[in-house]
Amino acid sequence: xxxxxxxxxxxxxxxxxxxxxxxxxxxxxxxxxxxxxxxxxxxxxxxxxxxxxxxxxxxxxxxxxxxxxxxxxxxxxxxxxxxxxxxxxxxxxxxxxxxxxxxxxxxxxxxxxxxxxxxxxxxxxxxxxxxxxxxxxxxxxxxxxxxxxxxxxxxxxxxxx
Length: 161
Description:
CATH architecture: 3-Layer(aba) Sandwich
Strand content: 35-45%
Number of strands: 7
CATH topology: Aminopeptidase
Radius of gyration: 15 Å
Helix content: 25-40%
Order of helices and strands: EHHEEEHEHEE
């Protein structure tokens, strides 16, 4: 597996991953009815941000983006998002993407990385983030409406560099 920066030619393979995850409604707070154009505008970030893809045998199996979490006085903390194709989960793709964007953020001089809305039901992601040094710094109870579990908390997670 190789992780590299996203190119425009990657979008046709990234879009189905984004589409399927967003429509499932289990992990992201995006509108499940979002269009491809809306998804592209939300997901693909250019400088000073980064968008990355994980590739196995010329097939995109995951994507991530990272950028300043907030402007102005909050711009020293980064944030990131990750999506992994269903058939590639459990194979280290999320770990590789997370390491890639953490390294990018450190190189850019960010002081840390904050995840603003990790569904409490997303145990795989929470376990991964904890392994990489993140901790839950707060939880908004019932802030995420999971399609089968109902309202679950949204964690704020942070890793200081």
